[in-house]
C-alpha cells in the first residue's frame, strides 16, 4: 500500500470530483492520504476534508508564504493537534524563493512548529526552497533541544 504524505485535497480544484479523486487513488494503490494545512484559517476546512473518508488524515500548520499574515505560537498550534485525524505538523519551513514573507517571521513560525512536533511526537512536514542553509541550521539547533520526527 502507498501513502500520499502530502496532498491538498481541501483545494477548490478537487471539490467537483472529490469522490473520483479518492477512487483513482485507491485504484493506483494509494491507501492513505494526508491533506496538508497551509493556514490556520483554513484548518477547519482541512480537518473537514480529512473527516470525509476513513483513509484521509491531515496536518495543522502555516506555510512559509503566509508568515507575514500568520505569526503562530505553540499555544496556537498545540490545541489543534488533539483531533485523531491530525497526524502531522506543518506545512512549515522556509521559502526564500519568492520573497513572500519576512525571513525572521518564517523562522519564528518554523521554530513554533518544531516545538509542537517535539511535544506531540507528530512528524514535522518541512517545506524548504532556496533556504537550505537556514533550514538545516534551524533543524540542527532545534534538535539539540530534543528530538522530533519529520519529513522534508
Word description of this protein:
It is a single chain. The chain is an alpha/beta fold. Helix content is 34%, strand content 23%. The protein has 5 helices and 6 strands, in the order βαβαβαβαβαβ. It has a 6-stranded parallel β-sheet. Strand 3, helix 3 (74-77) and strand 4 form a beta-alpha-beta unit. The mean pLDDT is 95.
What's the pLDDT, averaged over the residues? Answer: 95
Query: What structural class should be given to the helix and strand makeup?
Result: alpha/beta
Ranges where pLDDT stays below 50 over 5 or more residues in a row are none
Largest sheet: 6 strands, parallel
Q: What are the secondary-structure elements, in order, as H or E?
A: EHEHEHEHEHE
Number of strands: 6
Overall geometry: globular
Q: Report strand %.
A: 15-25%
Radius of gyration, taken over Cα atoms and rounded to an integer in Å: 15 Å
Q: Determine the number of helices (DSSP H or I, runs of at least 4 residues).
A: 5
Strand order of the largest sheet: 1-2-3-4-5-6
**What percent of the residues sit in helical stretches (DSSP H or I)?**
25-40%
Could you give the distance between the termini? 21 Å
Amino acid at each position: 500500500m502507498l501513502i500520499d504524505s502530502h496532498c491538498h485535497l481541501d483545494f477548490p480544484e478537487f471539490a467537483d470530483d472529490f469522490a473520483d479523486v479518492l477512487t483513482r487513488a485507491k485504484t493506483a494503490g494509494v491507501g492513505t492520504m494526508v491533506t496538508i494545512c497551509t493556514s490556520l484559517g483554513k484548518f477547519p476546512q482541512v480537518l473537514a476534508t480529512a473527516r470525509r473518508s476513513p483513509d484521509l488524515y491531515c496536518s495543522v500548520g502555516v506555510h512559509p508564504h503566509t508568515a507575514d499574515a500568520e505569526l503562530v505560537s505553540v499555544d496556537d498550534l498545540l490545541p489543534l493537534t488533539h483531533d485523531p485525524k491530525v497526524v502531522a505538523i506543518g506545512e512549515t519551513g522556509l521559502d526564500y524563493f519568492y520573497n513572500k514573507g519576512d525571513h525572521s517571521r518564517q523562522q519564528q513560525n518554523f521554530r513554533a512548529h518544531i516545538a509542537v512536533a517535539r511535544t506531540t511526537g507528530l512528524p514535522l512536514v518541512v517545506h524548504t526552497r532556496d533556504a537550505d542553509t537556514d533550514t538545516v541550521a534551524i533543524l540542527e539547533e532545534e534538535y539539540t533541544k530534543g528530538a522530533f520526527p519529520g519529513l522534508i
